[in-house]
């Protein structure tokens, strides 16, 4: 059971410009281009852009670590990202990378650029920052997520320990790696009181093959204080936003019969968790 998992970034009228910008920066391509939804492929990975209005703003609670194969590649990407953006951490050598930097681009997306020459790795890795009441819960979150998804594991964990960040709890996580259904994410705890937290500006999409899988992830992620939203959206107990989307929804919506597809869209808009049988009823009505 391998589901398609990828990030979704919320934009307000500038989604196409952002898609072009990221394809230029990382050598990618646009694979779907509609008025509201744009899919891009970067390093063979899918990212979704949702151009849906001003409701949500992206922030650094979820950033994207880019594992570059060389210093030259990193510097090339860095120079494009910093133009009209803001440097959060200057490029410098770090214990984990011969060159590393953190930047917020002109569209409000934050990127951590690092060196990893292994060609088989996932090149873009969503990185979750656990702040405020979530600070200290990164380890709990990794267990929570890997218990829900198949083919999951917790990898390397670096704690703050007694190092140079004396303000941090030594047991908190400075950097950790985990996988859900084979998809890699990083996470960290951070005690600084940033004026932001997890929101819908950046969400994680899980495409499912059946109602059984849809129920499994929906029920698992909304457990212990998560919140159901509309149209397949939910927030887990840490506030991270997810979209649990049956592949059947796209199949029915995007078929040759546009009138039937519109009925499916209307039915989906009334749902919280997406019910495939109800979509099929709408399609055949």
Q: Identify the CATH class of the largest domain.
A: Alpha Beta
Helix and strand sequence: EHEEEEHEEEEHEEEEHEEEHHH
| Distance between the first and last residues' Cα | 32 Å
* Total E-strand runs: 16
Mean pLDDT comes to 94
CATH topology title of the largest domain? Signal recognition particle alu RNA binding heterodimer, srp9/1
CATH architecture of the largest domain: 2-Layer Sandwich
Stretches with pLDDT under 50, minimum 5 residues: none
Tell me the count of domains.
2
Sheet with most strands:
8 strands, mixed
Provide an overview of this structure:
This protein is of the alpha+beta class. It has two domains: 55-189, Signal recognition particle alu RNA binding heterodimer, srp9/1; 202-283, 2,3-Dihydroxybiphenyl 1,2-Dioxygenase, domain 1. It has helices at residues 15-26, 71-82, 138-148, 211-222, 247-253, 258-268, 276-283; strands spanning 4-11, 29-33, 37-42, 45-51, 62-68, 86-94, 97-104, 110-115, 124-130, 153-159, 173-180, 183-189, 202-208, 227-228, 233-235, 241-246. The strands form two sheets. Strands 2-3-4-1-13-16-15-14 form an eight-stranded mixed beta sheet. An eight-stranded mixed beta sheet has the order 6-7-8-5-9-12-11-10, with helices on one face. A hairpin with a 3-residue loop joins strand 2 and strand 3. Helix 6 (258-268) packs antiparallel against helix 7. The protein is globular and about 65 Å long. The mean pLDDT is 94.
């Amino acid at each position: 059971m391998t589901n398609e998992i990828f990030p979704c970034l919320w934009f307000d009228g500038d989604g196409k410009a952002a898609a072009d910008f990221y394809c230029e920066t990382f050598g990618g391509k646009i694979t779907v281009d509609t008025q509201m939804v744009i899919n891009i492929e970067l390093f063979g990975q899918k990212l979704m852009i949702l151009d849906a209005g001003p409701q949500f703003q992206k922030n650094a609670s979820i950033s994207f670590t880019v594992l570059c194969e060389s210093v030259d590649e990193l510097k090339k990407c860095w120079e494009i990202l910093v133009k009209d953006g803001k440097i959060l951490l200057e490029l410098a050598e770090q214990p984990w990378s011969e060159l590393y930097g953190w930047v917020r681009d002109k569209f409000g997306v934050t990127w951590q650029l690092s060196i990893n020459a292994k060609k088989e790795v996932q090149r873009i890795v969503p990185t979750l920052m656990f702040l405020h009441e979530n600070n200290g819960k990164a380890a709990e979150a990794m267990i929570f997520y890997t218990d829900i998804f198949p083919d999951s594991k917790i990898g390397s964990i670096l704690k703050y320990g007694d190092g140079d960040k004396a303000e941090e709890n030594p047991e908190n996580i400075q950097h950790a790696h985990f996988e859900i259904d084979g998809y890699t994410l990083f996470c960290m705890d951070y005690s600084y009181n940033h004026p932001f937290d997890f929101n819908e500006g950046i969400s994680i999409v899980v495409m499912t093959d059946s109602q059984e899988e849809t129920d499994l992830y929906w029920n698992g992620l909304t457990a212990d204080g998560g919140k159901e939203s509309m149209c397949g959206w939910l927030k887990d107990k840490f506030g991270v936003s997810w979209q649990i989307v049956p592949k059947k929804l796209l199949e029915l919506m995007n078929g040759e019969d546009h009138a039937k597809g519109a009925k499916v869209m209307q039915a989906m808009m009334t749902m919280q968790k997406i019910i495939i049988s109800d979509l099929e009823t709408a399609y055949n009505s």
